[in-house]
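Q: What would this complex look like in 3D?
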Amino acid sequence: MTQLTGGPGIAGPGPAAPAGGTPPGSRVRGSSFRRKEENRTGLALISPTVIIVVAAVVLPIIWAIALAFQRVRLINIRGTGFIGEYTLANFANVLTSPGFLGALFTTLIYSVVGTALAIGIGLIAALALRKPFPGRGLIRASLLLPYVAPVVAATFVWSTMLNPQFGVVNWFGTMVLGWEDPVAFLSDRALPVSIFGWQVELPIALITVILFEGWRSFPFAFLFLTARLQAVPEVLDEAARIDGATPSQRFRHILLPQLLPTIAVLTVLRFIWTFNNFDDIYLLTGGGAGTEVVSVRVFDYLTARGDIGAAAAQALLLAVILAMLVGVYLKLFGREEEQA
Amino acid sequence: MTTSTLETPRSESSSARGFNRDHFENALLKVLRPLVIALLFLAAVFPFYYMVLLSFRSLESLLQNPGSLWISVDEFDPSTYLDVLAPVSDGGQGFATFMRNSLVVALGTVVLSLLVAIPGAYAVSRLAFLGRRQVSGLFLAVYFFPSILLAVPLFVFFTQVGLRGSLVGLLIVYVSQVVAVSIYTLRNYFATVPVSLEEAAAIDGCSRLQIMRRISLPLAMPAIISNGLFIFMIAWNEFLFALLFLVERRDSWTVSLGLSQLSGSIEVPTTVLMAGSVILTLPIILLFFASERLLVGGLTAGAEKG
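A: Here is my prediction, written as structure tokens for the whole assembly.
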């Protein structure tokens, strides 16, 4: 009823409809006083934020770049500032030291597989929970728990569950699945396993931290994909069903094209965050057993070794490589991005 | 109803092979779907169940029977909570102090961030000022920045100034990390408030600040609350900066930091620390379930950094 009565008013040439769409600045083109006032108020309102961000983010980053080109150690930290001897020695040291390229490689594997896993599980979860059933709301909310829970608590429970002495996973493995020995999931670099007679060395600690990443981040993908699925018009699915398309065909040809832009955005977001991730690996393995990623290495250089210059150089390389990877990705798939 | 009536004639007329495949896939999904849901639910919830379970057991009973997923009445042992909460001077782990610290930092971050972000978001969404677009771009860039790169200079600076170990320093860093995201999400809500409402108020003689306070703020309240909850969760869960700045002073540890530091030592029993994990997790989960509707919107609008 209300829509009917409101209809003619909006459809008619009333001034309200166009006014809502135009930005406030252009409405008062005549009065330069109001525009000046608006400019002043805007700047006044935004300036606290800008000051905080510049002081606590922008300046430190510029300083980090300066530090990367200086030989600074924790011991002589008092005297350091912007002025000092600039040198490329840090980068030379970092790039020639044995661990860095390995850590970079681990970071790449960790973030690529972790991202794929998180989005894959999130997609399966979103599809499985698409049709309503009693209790769906509660299950949906529960699936978000790994994502909202504090990372320290989550890693602590995981490492207790995986503990070789009293963890429930190893108890289950040895008692029910018949493992010969308990597996040290978080401190074994390689686990010899025979698959169909083949002797394979599984990088078990790396696999575990990747699984943790998938477990912790899939709710994020699940949330986004669920929201996108709800926006897919029901008619499309219905029409395909009437035409005799099987569920897998409907997914392949109807749903997937609709979801792809969202998946592309999720890929970028998850990849960036996983690539930069420090907490999970530091808390699970401390970077040991073949799981050292660049950010954990930076932390080690910063605190344990006190080599601030090298730490800054590695962090900078991490950021630059990430920016390049994301840039290449956007260049390749940029068009899909814009649709999302 | 409609699907079943539409499907009957089709399945009769379609070729046998297509019919079989469709039938097969539907049957498979019928079995697979509940299985997948159960599995996902178990994977998501079991670790938290395990956490609560262990927190009520003693270490001896855990070592004797690591596979037990149920707790009998005589095993039930809530003393872990007393142990973990009691101050260090009384032989406890001092989690009560950690909770106070976390609460101070998290609430402080929420209040300060919102105080700064609400006017900022209003300006970005409503007012045409010089450099508006650049500012938005800057905030977005902050959001995606590797925090480990930021950690290096901040660590150096805090060491130089002697602010390491102070909660205030941590608070400032949190605000700077959160405020950009906060503006980004709030901005979208301010944009949904009809301009005509504000114009009406302006015609009635309201000043810009009065308009903000009386019109835009109340209308954007749901968004502001969800944003506040979201900031609280980020600050409560944060680990890296707490580790860098507070690690040397035990009395200013947050709950996250305290748990991570104590879990490395052998002296504290795992079950006692499980009680600590429950204490760390419970406020977040309670907040989450109490405000799930609001929060889910906040999570998708400005996803957590991490």
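A: To summarize the key features: Chain B has two domains: 1-47, 85-301. Chain B touches chain A through 106 residues (CB under 8 Å).
Q: Very helpful, thank you.
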